[in-house]
Amino acid sequence: MKLVKWLLAMMLTLVVGITVYLTMFFDLNDFKPQIVDAVKKKTGRDLHITDDLSWSVFPSLGIKLGGITLSNPENFTPASMLDVNEAVANVALMPLFSQQIEVDLLKLDGLTLNLVTQKNGKTSFDGLMDDSSTAETHVDSQTSDAKANSLQTLDIGGISITNSTVNVIDVASNTTQTFSLKSFTLEQFSLGKLADFAYEFSATLPDMSLMSSGKGQVQVAQDLNNVTITDFTMSHQANGDSLPNKTLTAEMTAQVAMALETKTIELQLTKLSALDIAAAGDVKVNYANKIPKVAMNLALGDIDVDALLPKEATSEEATTEVATVSNTEPDLSALSAIDLTVKLTAKSIKVNNMLTQNWLMDMAISKGVLTLSQLTADLYQGKLALSAKLDGRKSLPSYQFDKKLTGVNIRPLLMDAAEIDLLSGLASFEVKGSGASLIPDNVKKNLDAVGKFEVSDGSLYGVNIPQMIRSAQQKLQGNLSADSKEELKTDFTSLTGSFTLKDAVVTNPDLAMAAPLIRLKGKGTANIASEALDYTLTTSVVGSLAGQGGEIDESLKGVDIPLTIKGTFQAPKFGLDTKALLEGQFKDEADKAKEKLKDSLLKKLGV
Questions:
Q1: Is-contact 412 395, C-beta < 8 A?
Q2: Predicted confidence (pLDDT) at residue 212 exceeds the cutoff of 90
Q3: Is residue 256 within 8 Å of residue 272, measured between CB atoms?
């Protein structure tokens, strides 16, 4: 027992002796010139320490620094790369002898970091590190890891970082991005226990400003391999002309789990609210490989994409932008550096004024290829099913897709999507296609596709074919004033056809329409680049064309009546091919006359 007392007394005497020596006879400030000269020799930079250095030894080993400035390379603006107002670190001395770290206080205030990139590519970091530092750092990091894993305890009384700013300056583009950490605080912290933390952060970017604040609890496992953040709540606000209504706010609550040994991060998003969008889900990241593997599973509420997009540019700006974009193939090389899978559900999504509900999407990006294996949604009382693939591994991207619509109410869809009031009914539509290039003009030219369609119990708007035939018939009979104010609509029971798309031209060789009074067959083309229509239709009368004006001669029943569709998608023009009709009638009359003459001759010959 006496031996233990003597050992403790000797250790206490040793510590007190060292403390007295260091505080009374050893002045850190005497080493300022040597420190400044060493930095100048090693980096070529100027280091200024305006405040006196002070330290303590017992009961804590601590140091206080202040008024520190490290210069940028010569002729850089700003002249200083690093400014520190005050830095304080105090570590309890006695626990260090038993491999226990107890930090009383870590404090950093007024740090300013100016990171400059010149027009010639030189940066503020040039000259600060040499090639040998990489290997040394690797060895040191392994040593540090070994020491860290052998720690018995790590207790921190508190961490405070205040008024810290990072300025990222690009001279070539004349832009400055400012990131400011107003405060970061960590309360009493120990390994294996939860500790409260909070932050306030802001950023000023060329096109917007951002403010963010948050708080939560963090826990680091005893072996330092697992980090958990619970009840992490964050509030964000962004302001900028490119944002919807020039402002964006978001609230988020999440749980985070990091496994340093297996190099994985899991984010459980329990709540997200932004721009009237509610979301929940999880994100998993595995960064053990060169390309981190990310898996997202998100459930979204109602989304109005149109409201999220920036306001339309003026016509002159839009023309300039289109001219620029149309000649530039997008660079998709970044897809090669992404390994991502996404499973997404959404209550509803509105885009380009089209409303869809009950979205389900499975998408993956891997090795430069984006694969949309499944996208289904409810769409205007029907169903949408889509699969697609985009290959960005080459400079000229290529794509393929398979799209199906079933039971869709086609009239409101066309009105919302393209403001076209042309067709109504329940539509089914299938199309498969492929192409290369994502330049808008090239997409129209290079897209090859085949498909078919069927519309039931609908109407064709802009034309009343029975009325058109009645009017033409009356005019042929001499009533040149014949006209009608009936609604320009032709009802039908079915409308079917197939099509091919090549060189921006849709070709439909087998259009067929069945209506109560008529049967229609036709063929033609539609140019998706110019939106020009060129259709030739043949109509056969199968029922009475009598209207409210009284009985009409039914001599056209069974006669093929040629119609045409010209104009554009937005303004189709329907017409009756009178010349072809007359030629058809004359041919029929001539055939009848021939038959009549033949019968007369046969009678005369007694046959």
A1: no
A2: yes
A3: no
